Batch of 3 targets.
Target 1
Amino acid sequence: MIKNECPIIKKCGGCFYPQDQYQEELKEKTLFIEKEVQKAKLKIEVKPTVASPLVNGYRNKVIVAFNQKYEFGFYEENSHRIIPYNRCLLH
């Protein structure tokens, strides 16, 4: 696990959870699946979400925004403002 703090984590909107909340993310995923199974009235056991050995650096798809000045980055959450970046911990 990379322990570096992301310099744009509060701006970019790309991460649902900061790096230090990975265990909470796993619980949320399990709860989501449990609710969907209940809604579908399936009689199956939902096991806890398995943690990946790669907490960071695992995404292989990136959507990068560009503007007319050829600046690039991620869109700020809920806007079209570009947040420039050099490196994303997830990509």
Target 2
Amino acid sequence: MKFKNAIVLTGGIGTGKSTVVSFLKMFGYKIIDADKISKEVFEEKKELIQKLFNTTDRKKLRDIVFNDK
């Protein structure tokens, strides 16, 4: 996909990301939800993830991935 312009929203829980996305949708912006995509990919690759990491627990995987130097 190629974009002339893009807006990227980041932030913690309760910072208003969903509210801003709702406004952007009202004005016709196309939205790409990285959280939604990552969950879909996770479900598609769950068996492989289990083989590679011996778990599909997202919290354990986060700890493994982000603590690996």
Target 3
Amino acid sequence: MIVCLRVDERLIHGQVAMTWTKELKLNGLVVASDEAASNEIQKMTLKMAVPEGIKCIIKSVEDVTTILDDPRSESMRLMVLVPTVKDAVTLCKTLQKILKMVNIGKCR
């Protein structure tokens, strides 16, 4: 289940890692970013910010829709992070039936 879709150009940072994961009782963070998905150094850096015990997936916006449509994701509490409002709108159109909340953070 997608507990929250958050728009934040920083993607995973202290507030997300330490506060949001605990408050929302998350099992996983899903980064939907074409830029991050194609940059190995950025992926490695983002994954370093994820607390122990929280799964992290970093994929392109298009690939994320396939992952979140998978029945296995229904049993998890996930936060999807996107860098832009445009990416959020794309995902909202596709995933509107399973989104619980959209949160706007620091945007470009």
